């Protein structure tokens, strides 16, 4: 039996000679072998000699045209393993994604696929399953995260995807999910917000909100600030951990200009403190999750509809734009990764833009 499998040149099923490079391995098993660059052999088993020969012909043509890609690494690794590596090596500073979006990918059936089976069709199935349970915006974030993982694997780990199977060009995103949020404080809402936050059992809550408006930092950035991070003489603050730090070109903490309003607020807080040692946290508001719950309750109490703490970053960016009219300078203050991201947060009131046009016309009006 062994001799027939390894040396037979006739196909027992048809009585015909086997094609060169095809070996009969048993009933319904025909192994095709081909030598590739470096002298290494690749092989694949088929149910008929005809299919085996077709694979040989296709592989030979790809080798001759320089289009052949060895997919064996894709067969040996699963989506779960790829995502796990990305989390360990590239997502140490992205807590929200690690705790929210990554588990959703790993718990879906797509995670069990070998990378060779991670096709645009498989990703579309993932998209549709997610859409049954989550908002369009959440689905888009998870698709974009999966696409980013695949792109990183191609560029940095030499994973031989022919193309990114989760890219927006391959898998359509839910329509309308990319609409930017445009909640701004209007009328006396800011005063009402400060008034209700002053009633919080955590005294620093109101200062934390004021700082968010004056400086435009993200919640986690402000929450981790210590007095040693503030340089009043140089009018700057130092952030050791930011959302976009993994993209930073320069090493070390991110240095941002300290706005005058934020500086006055911090000096006032420092004067009130019994202790403001360099290592002390500036704001004592408990955990970020507990603060978010309090903020939601307080805004509801103040009658402020559909207002999240992150909306204050939109408010701050739009206010700071009046001072920093150059978008590149504004981006250095707010910490946005690029102009496109900044544009999502800059949401001027229509009447303010109209007033600017009227003021310009008045200044340049000739008799």
From TrEMBL:
List the GO molecular function terms: DNA binding
- Could you tell me the superkingdom of the organism this chain comes from? Bacteria
- InterPro entries reported in the protein's UniProt record: DNA_brk_join_enz (IPR011010), Integrase-like_cat_sf (IPR013762), Integrase_catalytic (IPR002104), Integrase_recombinase_N (IPR010998), Tyrosine_recombinase_XerCD (IPR050090)
Limits of the Tyr recombinase domain: 180-361
- Keyword Heme applies: no
The cross-references to PROSITE patterns, in alphabetical order and at most eight, read: TYR_RECOMBINASE
Report keywords, A-Z.
Answer: DNA integration, DNA recombination, DNA-binding
In terms of Gene3D superfamilies, this protein maps to: 1.10.150.130, Intergrase catalytic core (1.10.443.10)
What is an annotated GO biological process for this record, any one? DNA recombination
What PANTHER family does the database record attribute to this sequence?
INTEGRASE_RECOMBINASE HI_1414-RELATED (PTHR30349:SF94), PHAGE INTEGRASE-RELATED (PTHR30349)
The protein's name is: Integrase
In its UniProt entry, the species of origin is given as Acetobacter aceti
């Amino acid at each position: 039996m062994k001799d027939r499998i390894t040396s037979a040149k006739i196909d027992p099923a048809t009585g015909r000679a086997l094609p060169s490079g095809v070996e009969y391995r048993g009933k319904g098993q025909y192994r095709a072998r081909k030598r590739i660059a470096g002298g290494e052999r690749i092989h694949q088993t088929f149910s008929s000699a005809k299919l085996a020969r077709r694979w040989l012909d296709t592989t030979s043509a790809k080798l001759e045209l320089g289009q052949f890609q060895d997919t064996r690494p894709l067969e040996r690794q699963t989506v779960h393993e790829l995502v796990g590596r990305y989390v360990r090596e590239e997502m140490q500073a992205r807590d929200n994604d690690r705790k929210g979006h990554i588990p959703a990918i790993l718990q879906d059936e797509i995670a069990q696929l070998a990378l060779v089976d991670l096709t645009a069709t498989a990703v579309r199935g993932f998209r549709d399953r997610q859409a049954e349970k989550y908002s369009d915006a959440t689905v888009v974030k998870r698709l974009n995260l999966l696409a980013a993982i695949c792109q990183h694997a191609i560029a940095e780990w030499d994973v031989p995807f022919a193309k990114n199977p989760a890219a927006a060009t391959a898998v359509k995103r839910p329509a309308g999910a990319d609409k930017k949020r445009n909640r701004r404080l209007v009328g006396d809402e800011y005063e009402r917000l400060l008034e209700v936050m002053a009633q919080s059992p955590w005294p620093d809550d109101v200062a934390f909100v004021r700082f968010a408006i004056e400086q435009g930092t993200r919640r986690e950035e402000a929450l981790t600030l210590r007095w040693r991070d503030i340089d009043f003489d140089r009018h700057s603050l130092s952030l050791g951990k930011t959302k976009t730090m993994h993209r930073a070109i320069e090493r070390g903490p991110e240095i941002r200009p300290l706005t005058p309003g934020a500086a006055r607020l911090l000096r006032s807080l420092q004067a009130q403190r019994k202790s403001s040692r360099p290592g002390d946290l500036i704001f004592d508001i408990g955990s970020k999750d507990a603060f978010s719950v309090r903020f939601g309750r307080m805004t509801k109490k103040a009658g402020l509809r559909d207002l999240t703490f992150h909306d204050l970053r939109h408010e701050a960016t739009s206010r700071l734009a009046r001072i920093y009219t150059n978008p590149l300078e504004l981006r250095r203050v707010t910490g946005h990764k690029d102009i496109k991201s900044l544009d999502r947060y800059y949401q001027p009131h229509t009447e303010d833009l109209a007033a600017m046009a009227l003021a310009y016309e008045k200044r340049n009006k000739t008799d």
